[in-house]
Amino acid sequence: MSSGLTIQQKKDRKFGSWIALVVCVLLLVACGWFGYRWYVEGEQPPLIPVPASAMADPTIDESPVSGVEINDHKVAPTQPRYISIPAIGVEKTRVIGVGLTKDKQLDTPKNINDTAWYTASGLPGSGYGAVVIDGHNGGVTKDGIFAKLSQLRVDDEIMIERGDGKKITYKVAENKTMSLKEANESGMKNMMLPIDPTKEGLSLITCAGNWVPRDKVFDKRVMLRAVAVN
């Protein structure tokens, strides 16, 4: 009858120690390399998929906006009050007026469930210029109102309701995702203008890509341009 005990075989401990040392060195080199690439260029280590929203600015408010807060939201008669995008489930979302930050960058809404209208851009229903609105792709734990913005296709409809109740419908004409560098060099210049110079335009913007910790910013932008159809 067996005792049920296992006899440990004696091993060459010196050889095993060398193997362990080599493995540790390789792991340290790999971690250092991927850590550098992630910190400097925003690249994520392979085989560890991390949603972009999980690395967003932790100061952004993720709390839901109540129905009362939505209904109580007031703006001037000709300014955008709400935005709706049926194709991606955005319905009667508040539009908050913003300007530029102290660094001269386009400001964003404080809450991931709101959008922000750049007050120096066009007015909905004016018949000219481009209405520029941005929104978050997500917070630290939740998707933002524009998380699915990149999924919109040409001819999808977007509705803006003004402070006086007038509604303007736009149709998507172009939807691109570009690097932050390209967005700053040419993208924003185009977004400030209607894609069709004979019609009023709407430009929607959100972040995409990877989070670059060094710069505290995402490395890509979704840039959508639409045209008023009524």
What would you note in describing this structure?
The chain has 3 helices and 8 strands; from the N terminus they run ααββββββαββ. It folds into 2 domains: 10-49, no CATH class; 52-228, Sortase (Sortase, Chain: A), CATH 2.40.260.10. The chain is α+β, with helices and mostly antiparallel strands. It has helices at 13-41, 67-72, 180-191, and strands at 80-85, 90-98, 115-118, 130-135, 157-162, 167-179, 201-212, 217-228. The model is unreliable at 1-11 and 43-54 (pLDDT under 50). An 8-stranded mixed β-barrel has the order 1-2-3-4-7-8-6-5.
What is the topology?
Elements: H1 13-41, H2 67-72, E1 80-85, E2 90-98, E3 115-118, E4 130-135, E5 157-162, E6 167-179, H3 180-191, E7 201-212, E8 217-228
Parallel strand pairs: 2-3, 4-7
Antiparallel strand pairs: 1-2, 1-5, 3-4, 5-6, 6-8, 7-8
